[in-house]
C-alpha cells in the first residue's frame, strides 16, 4: 500500500535565508476556519449534521467491556509470552486506540447534550487505558483546534528539542515507537492547565479501577491494559493517524522565523479514507473534522459527500502504515515538517487559546438546528 499526495503542494515559500532545519512559518490563518465559512455559505444544510451521536456511548461500553474481559482472561498468562503480547497488540492496542479516539470525540461534547454526561463517559472510557488523562486531554485538544499550528499554544507541535535530537532515521524510529509518551508529556512542557475537580475525579476513578482490577485479577491484568495503551501509540497501524494528520509530506524548503512567508502554505491537514476508520471513529476524515468539530464521527462521511468539491482536491493518505514507514525513511519528512504560525496572523486577528462568546454561540446555534 502507498501513501500519496494526489494534488501537488503549493510553491515553496519565499524567504530571505534558507536554513537546513526549521518549521514552515507562515502569517496565514489556519485553513479550517475559512473553509468552514465557505462550506456553510455554499451548503447551509451541513449545519444540520451537528450535534451528539447516541451510538457513541454504546460503542464505548462495548470496547470497555472487551478490554476488561481480555484483562480477566490473561490474568494467569505470562507477560513475556506470544499469547499475551499478540492479544495486547492486535486486540488491546486497537481497542485502546478506539478509546483514545472516543475521548477525542467526547471532548467535543458529541456523546450527550449534557456537558456533565460527556465528562463522565470520558472518564469511563479512560478506565481501560490504565492511566488518567481524559480530563487533561480536553482543554489541550480544544486549543489545538482553536490554535492549529500556533507557536506556544498547539501542543500537537513537536518541540525544537524533539526536532533537533530526533532528526535522523533512528531518531524518527524512536519517536514513532514512543510517540504516545511524547503526546502525553509534551503538553505540560508547553503550558500548564489548572488542576480542577474533574481532574481529581478522573485520577481517583482511575486509581480505584486499577486497584480493584489488581485485587481481583492480579497485576497481569493491569499490565495488559497499560501495554495495550503503549502499543496503541507505538508501531501500530492505527497509530499512523498521529503523524498522518498534520505533518507535511511534500514540503517546500523551510523558512526561518524572521522571514515568515506571506505566500500560500502547504496543506497542513491530511485526510485518510481507508478501512481503519472503522476502528477509529472516522478520525481519518481529519480535514472534515477540523472544518466542523461539532459534527460527530457518524456524519463526517455525509459532510464529505455534501461538500465534495471542497474535499476532493485536497491531498490525502491511503495507508497509515505506510505513513509511519515514509516518516521514518524519507529524508524530506521529519519532525520539522509542520506548519507553524505566530499568534498574530496576517488578517490582524490574534489567535488565543480561549473561545469567544460569538464562536461558542455559533456552535451552539448549529447544534440547536439539529433539534
Task: Outline the fold blueprint.
Layout: E1 24-26, H1 31-42, H2 55-73, H3 82-106, H4 115-126, H5 134-146, H6 160-165, H7 169-177, H8 179-190, H9 197-217, H10 219-232, H11 240-244, E2 271-272, H12 286-291, H13 300-306, H14 308-311, E3 316-317, H15 320-329, E4 339-341, H16 357-368
Parallel strand pairs: 1-4, 2-3
Helix pairs in contact: 2-3, 2-10, 3-4, 3-10, 4-9, 7-15, 9-10
Membrane topology: Multi-pass membrane protein
GO cellular component, one term: membrane
Family: Belongs to the fatty acid desaturase type 1 family. DEGS subfamily.
Features:
371 residues; mainly alpha; 16 helices; disordered N terminus; disordered C terminus; FA_desaturase_dom
Please provide a written account of the structure.
It is found in: Membrane. It is a multi-pass membrane protein. This is Sphingolipid delta(4)-desaturase. This protein has helices spanning about 30-40, 55-75, 80-105, 115-125, 135-145, 160-165, 170-175, 180-190, 195-215, 220-230, 240-245, 285-290, 300-305, 310, 320-330, 355-370, and strands at about 25, 270, 315, 340. It contains 16 helices and 4 strands. The chain has one domain. The protein is mainly alpha-helical and about 375 residues long. The chain starts with about 25 loop residues before the first strand and ends with a helix. The radius of gyration is 21 Å and the shape is globular. A two-stranded parallel ribbon has the order 1-4.
Amino acid at each position: 500500500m502507498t501513501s500519496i499526495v494526489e494534488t501537488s503542494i503549493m510553491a515553496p515559500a519565499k524567504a530571505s535565508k534558507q536554513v537546513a532545519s526549521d518549521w514552515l512559518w507562515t502569517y496565514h490563518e489556519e485553513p479550517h476556519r475559512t473553509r468552514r465559512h465557505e462550506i456553510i455559505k455554499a451548503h447551509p444544510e451541513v449545519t444540520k449534521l451537528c450535534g451528539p451521536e447516541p451510538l457513541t456511548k454504546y460503542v464505548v461500553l462495548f470496547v470497555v467491556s472487551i478490554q476488561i474481559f481480555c484483562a480477566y482472561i490473561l490474568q494467569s498468562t505470562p507477560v513475556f509470552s506470544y499469547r499475551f503480547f499478540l492479544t495486547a497488540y492486535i486486540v488491546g492496542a486497537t481497542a485502546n486506540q478506539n478509546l483514545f479516539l472516543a475521548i477525542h470525540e467526547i471532548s467535543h461534547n458529541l456523546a450527550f447534550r449534557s456537558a456533565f454526561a460527556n465528562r463522565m463517559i470520558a472518564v469511563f472510557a479512560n478506565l481501560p487505558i490504565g492511566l488518567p488523562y481524559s480530563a487533561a486531554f480536553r482543554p489541550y485538544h480544544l486549543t489545538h483546534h482553536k490554535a492549529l499550528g500556533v507557536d506556544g499554544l498547539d501542543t500537537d507541535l513537536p518541540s525544537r528539542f524533539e526536532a533537533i535530537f530526533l532528526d535522523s532515521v533512528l531518531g524518527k524510529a524512536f519517536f514513532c515507537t514512543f510517540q504516545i509518551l511524547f503526546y502525553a508529556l509534551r503538553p505540560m512542557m508547553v503550558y500548564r492547565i489548572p488542576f480542577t475537580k474533574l481532574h481529581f475525579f478522573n485520577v481517583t476513578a482511575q486509581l480505584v479501577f486499577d486497584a480493584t482490577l489488581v485485587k481481583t485479577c492480579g497485576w497481569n491484568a493491569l499490565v495488559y491494559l497499560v501495554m495495550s495503551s503503549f502499543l496503541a501509540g507505538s508501531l501500530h497501524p492505527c497509530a499512523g493517524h498521529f503523524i498522518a494528520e498534520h505533518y507535511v509530506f511534500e514540503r517546500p524548503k523551510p523558512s526561518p522565523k524572521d522571514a515568515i512567508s506571506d505566500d500560500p502554505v502547504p496543506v497542513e491537514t491530511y485526510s485518510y479514507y481507508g478501512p481503519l476508520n472503522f476502528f477509529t471513529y472516522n478520525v481519518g476524515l481529519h480535514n472534515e473534522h477540523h472544518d466542523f468539530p461539532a459534527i460527530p464521527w457518524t456524519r463526517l462521511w455525509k459532510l464529505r459527500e455534501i461538500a465534495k468539491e471542497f474535499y476532493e482536491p485536497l491531498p490525502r493518505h491511503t495507508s497509515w502504515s505506510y505513513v509511519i514507514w515514509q516518516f521514518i525513511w524519507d529524508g524530506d519528512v521529519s519532525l520539522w515538517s509542520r506548519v507553524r504560525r505566530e499568534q498574530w496572523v496576517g488578517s490582524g486577528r490574534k489567535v488565543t487559546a480561549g473561545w469567544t462568546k460569538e464562536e461558542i454561540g455559533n456552535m451552539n446555534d448549529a447544534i440547536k438546528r439539529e433539534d
